[in-house]
Each structure stands twice: as structure tokens, then as C-alpha cells.
């Protein structure tokens, strides 16, 4: 913060100011307030940092509201704070219990598996992939659209199982459920 | 409704709902609208005609074998479970989502493979691999008599491909010292050697090892420790003869200061009374001295209880003939 009267200019620090979220209130950095107060030396040398409340909004796993024509599934419609209240967990394993090892490894595996499946079944995934671990077995449950021919689907299933078993050195099972179209929960 | 008369399925009826639906849908079993029967070759004629199989629920009989539908733990399959289950938080003026494509039903673990019939069958198969408990060991005392050593080990299973858990290598050995053949000196030496691992109240020695990387090695190490302790406690080293009174675990009256003092006092009394010469052995054997000895030993070993103190008082009075 540059003191009035000093010639040096310090870069203003961005402040997170308490403000009502949702309102577009602008909060000026203190530098510009000093300028507003009319200290002549600072008017030209100071630039205020404007922060607005929109940046503080939480965007994690939330589908933004539209005109009422956007179909969303149950999974998409509920933001993360509904986990354990209206939603379950997409990935089930025991590593997150007290005293258990390997939580980080399982999480990294999960991320890879989801990306891999998203690419292997192009445009076919109706909803998120559910990953369950039973002892060392990996059970991957998917809800798939009936876009591909059954023979192609079977090939992709076998390919995925073989490749993932080779990667993770454990038995991998894919359990598919096919739907003609995505299950819409509501339109937002 | 006939579906629900199957005793195996009856216990399985559950409907996870947050709202009661307005119409009672339990009586209706929805069938997926099917366009055509499946074609084995999978050839699409002209425009893509979706060839989707009828769900298995339409082909199920009332008295089917449920174990063939769910033989092992499997995720929820709406086409194989003939129950009209709904799950989910409903929209306003709506009902929970149906079972088709319902991710919530897939996420939760289900026990559809664990009907009582299935469990009974499974146990029946496992019984062939089991042996009966020996009839001769029908009480705890007999078990302890024939098998005095108790070994405790743990193995761990966890999600993930690795078998190895660092907690799996600890081995605990438990044995009562009364089962070991130790004389007085050996027992005292043994207890000194093991220190904290011995519990006086239960007479239980507990040795826990985890210094070796494998469980097998830790087990061998505990057995080795037990053997070494046993043999060492029977040996008497030269320096053990230098055991002083301060080293004693419990108070022994023979050759103690209390004995010397009391004998000196009594001899002086006898000498002053000018009675016949009484020898030390006679003094020691007399009843009063015996009483005194018992009270002193009790005081020193057990501590100052009301009983002990009163006992000591009586003994002293009798000894010095002060009553």
C-alpha cells in the first residue's frame, strides 16, 4: 500500500472483500480511495483493482440455469453439497477409511478410468461412470446409449476390460446398462 | 402380484422413496417398450431399426431360481430385477425416478445375491471343506491345558491390487507362567527379564514382535524369545550371588535385620531376667516369634492395612509380654 506522499508505486493487492454474493457490487482497492480523497500525487500513479462478487461464486459440478430447455440428468441437477443427502458416491472403495492405505492411488486410477471410458465410448455415455472396488476387483458400471451396434459395443467392452486389467494388474469387470436415450430429471 | 409370493423375493421388497407416489405402482410391473425382437446377425435393414431385447423380467416365472439371476455380487440390473423400485429426490409434484438408467440404484451396494436360500446353499457347499471341532476340547480349561500357547496374527484385505499391509506382520504370543516348569529362582528371574510384558494379576506373559519384515519370521522370533527366556531363567550366573536386600522382590524374614534385632532383644531380656540359657533356635521356634515374623512379612509385602497393623500390634505385645 503506497503511503500518501511517497513516490514509489506498489502494485495493489487484490482483496477479497465481504460482499453480498449475487449482487454485482464493485469493491475498489484502497489505492483508488486514496486517489478519490484527492491526494494529487497519487491520482496519476495509482490504479485501483476492481473485484466483483461474481468471481466468488462456486462453479464446481453445477449446471448453470438456462431458459428451461436444457435437459439435465439427476446427477447433473444436484450440486456437490447434495452428496450424502440426495446423491450417493460415484466411486466406492475402502481406502478412505481410517488407517487404510492407498487413497491417493485409487483416486488417480478413478480419474484415468473416467477419462479413458469417456474416450472409448464416444458419445455413448448416458451418465457418469460408477466405479466399485471389491477386494482387488474393479467393477465399472456404466449406463450407455444404444448408439453403437451390439457387436461394436461388445468389442469395446472386451477391449476396455483387457486393457485396464493389464494396466492395473487386477481383474476389471464392465457392467453395462443400455438405454435408448438419456434419463432426463428436469429441464433447466 | 404373483411375483411376490416367491419366499426368496418376498424379503427383498423395498422401495426407496422420498415421496409416496399417488398411484400404487407396486401392482404394476412396467415393461420396457420394445420395438422389435433381437436379430442374431444384427443387420440393420434400411433405416436403423433399434433391435433391443425384451428385458429378462418379462421372461421370469414365479418359481424361478433367483440364484441363477444373481449368483454373485453384481450391480443393480433393472432388466433383471422384477421389482418396480424408484429412487431419487422427486421434482416438485413428481415422483422419484424409475429404475431404468437410475444411477443412484447402481451406486449403492445391493444384497440381491444374499437371499436366505442362497446363503444356505453356499454354506452347504462350504461344509465339505470344514472339519469338526474335536469333541475332547469342550471347555476353556481343557483347551488351555493342552494348548497353553496363544498366537495372535492379523491379515488385511483392502481395495486395490496390493496384498501387503504393514500392519500384517505383528505377532503376539500369550502364555501363563504357571504352565512353564519354573522353580522359585527361575520364575523371579524370568519376571525380571521380561519386565512390563508380564501381568501379575492374570499371570499372563504377552510378547509382541514386529521387528521382522515377514509374519513367519516374527513368529519364529517370538518362539525363539520364549525358549531363550526359559533357559536363561534356569541358569544362575555368578553375579546373581551378589543380590542384596534392596534387590529382593519380596520381603524374606530369614536372615533379615528384623530377625537379628528381635533375637538380640529377646536374648537381652532373658539375660536380664537371669533365666536359664535359651538358645537362638528355641527362640526362633517359639510361637510368639512365629507370629511376629508373619505380621512383619505381611506388613512389608502387602503394605499398611488396618488388619496388618493390628496383627503386628498383637504380636509385639505377646512377644514382649506387655499384655
TrEMBL record, chain A:
Record's keyword terms, sorted: Mitochondrion, Ribonucleoprotein, Ribosomal protein, Transit peptide
InterPro entries found in the cross-reference section: Ribosomal_uS3m (IPR026146)
Source organism, top-level taxon: Eukaryota
Localisation: Mitochondrion
GO BP field: translation
Cellular component, GO annotation: mitochondrion; ribonucleoprotein complex; ribosome
PANTHER family: MITOCHONDRIAL 28S RIBOSOMAL PROTEIN S24, SMALL RIBOSOMAL SUBUNIT PROTEIN US3M
Similarity annotation: Belongs to the universal ribosomal protein uS3 family.
Name the UniProt record assigns to this protein: Mitochondrial ribosomal protein S24
Protein source organism: Sarcophilus harrisii (Tasmanian devil)
Automatic annotation (TrEMBL), chain B:
Residue ranges of domain Small ribosomal subunit protein mS35 mitochondrial conserved in the record: 148-238
A GO cellular-component term linked to this record: mitochondrial small ribosomal subunit
UniProt GO BP: mitochondrial translation
A GO molecular-function annotation: structural constituent of ribosome
Origin superkingdom: Eukaryota
Pfam families: MRP-S28
PANTHER family xrefs: MITOCHONDRIAL 28S RIBOSOMAL PROTEIN S28 (PTHR13490), SMALL RIBOSOMAL SUBUNIT PROTEIN MS35 (PTHR13490:SF0)
Name used for this protein in its record: Mitochondrial ribosomal protein S35
Gene: MRPS35
Amino acid at each position: 500500500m503506497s503511503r500518501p506522499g511517497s513516490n514509489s508505486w506498489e502494485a495493489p493487492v487484490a482483496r477479497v472483500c465481504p460482499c453480498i454474493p449475487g449482487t454485482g457490487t464493485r469493491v475498489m482497492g484502497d489505492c483508488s480511495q486514496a486517489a478519490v480523497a484527492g491526494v494529487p500525487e497519487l491520482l496519476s500513479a495509482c490504479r485501483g483493482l476492481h473485484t466483483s462478487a461474481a468471481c466468488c461464486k462456486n462453479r464446481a459440478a453445477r449446471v448453470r440455469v438456462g431458459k428451461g430447455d436444457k435437459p439435465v440428468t439427476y446427477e447433473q441437477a444436484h450440486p456437490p453439497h447434495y452428496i450424502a443427502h440426495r446423491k450417493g458416491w460415484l466411486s466406492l472403495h475402502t481406502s478412505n477409511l481410517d488407517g487404510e492405505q492407498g487413497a491417493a492411488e485409487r483416486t488417480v486410477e478413478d480419474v484415468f478410468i473416467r477419462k479413458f471410458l469417456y474416450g472409448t465410448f464416444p458419445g455413448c455415455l448416458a451418465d457418469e461412470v460408477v466405479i466399485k472396488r471389491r477386494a482387488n476387483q474393479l467393477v465399472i458400471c456404466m449406463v450407455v446409449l444404444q448408439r453403437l451396434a451390439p457387436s461394436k459395443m461388445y468389442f469395446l467392452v472386451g477391449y476396455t476390460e483387457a486393457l485396464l486389467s493389464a494396466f492395473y494388474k487386477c481383474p476389471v469387470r464392465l457392467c453395462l446398462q443400455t438405454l435408448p436415450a438419456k434419463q432426463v430429471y428436469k429441464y433447466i | 402380484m404373483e411375483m411376490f409370493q416367491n419366499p426368496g423375493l418376498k424379503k427383498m421388497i423395498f422401495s426407496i422413496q422420498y415421496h409416496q407416489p399417488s398411484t400404487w405402482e407396486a401392482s404394476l410391473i412396467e415393461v420396457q417398450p420394445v420395438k422389435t425382437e433381437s436379430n442374431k446377425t444384427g443387420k440393420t435393414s434400411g433405416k436403423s431399426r433399434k433391435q433391443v431385447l425384451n428385458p429378462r423380467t418379462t421372461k421370469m416365472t414365479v418359481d424361478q431360481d433367483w440364484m441363477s439371476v444373481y449368483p454373485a455380487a453384481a450391480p443393480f440390473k433393472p432388466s433383471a430385477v422384477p421389482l418396480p423400485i424408484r429412487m431419487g429426490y422427486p421434482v416438485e409434484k413428481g415422483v422419484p425416478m424409475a429404475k431404468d438408467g437410475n444411477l443412484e440404484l447402481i451406486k449403492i451396494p445391493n444384497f440381491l445375491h444374499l437371499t436366505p436360500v442362497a446363503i444356505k446353499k453356499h454354506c452347504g457347499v462350504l461344509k465339505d471343506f470344514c472339519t469338526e471341532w474335536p469333541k475332547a476340547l469342550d471347555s476353556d480349561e481343557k483347551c488351555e491345558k493342552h494348548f497353553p500357547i496363544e498366537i495372535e496374527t492379523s491379515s488385511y484385505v483392502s481395495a486395490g491390487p496390493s496384498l501387503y499391509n504393514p500392519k500384517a506382520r505383528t505377532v503376539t504370543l500369550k502364555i501363563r507362567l504357571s504352565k512353564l516348569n519354573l522353580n522359585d529362582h527361575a520364575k523371579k528371574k524370568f519376571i525380571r527379564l521380561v519386565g512390563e510384558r508380564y501381568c501379575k494379576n492374570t499371570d499372563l506373559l504377552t510378547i509382541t514382535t514386529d521387528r521382522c519384515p515377514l509374519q513367519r519370521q516374527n513368529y519364529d522370533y517370538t518362539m525363539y524369545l520364549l525358549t531363550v527366556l526359559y533357559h536363561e531363567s534356569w541358569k544362575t550366573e555368578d553375579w546373581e550371588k551378589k543380590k542384596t536386600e534392596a534387590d529382593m522382590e519380596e520381603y524374606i524374614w530369614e536372615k533379615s535385620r528384623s530377625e537379628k534385632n528381635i533375637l538380640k532383644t529377646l536374648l537381652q531380656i532373658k539375660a536380664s531376667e537371669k533365666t536359664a540359657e535359651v538358645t537362638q533356635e528355641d527362640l526362633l521356634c517359639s510361637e510368639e516369634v512365629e507370629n511376629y515374623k508373619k505380621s512383619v512379612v505381611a506388613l512389608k509385602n502387602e503394605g499398611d492395612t488396618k488388619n496388618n497393623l493390628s496383627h503386628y500390634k498383637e504380636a509385639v505385645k505377646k512377644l514382649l509380654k506387655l499384655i
